[in-house]
Amino acid sequence: MAIIINIDVLLAKRKMSVTELSERVGITMANLSVLKNGKAKAIRFSTLEGICKALDCQPGDIIEYRNEN
Where is coiled-coil annotated (predicted)? Predict the structure, then answer.
């Protein structure tokens, strides 16, 4: 897929666990894992906003487009 989710990178930079992020954002570990592993088909803006707030970042820091050619 050409859309890359960089949550792992941001978590490492912030020294935050996936568990802590899921608690701060208010989503389940299962849903966060689906998103983190690039298996999600969609993301709600409210979830994206919560992740940005918890990680003190911009949406473009989380979601990246890479041309697969």
Answer: none
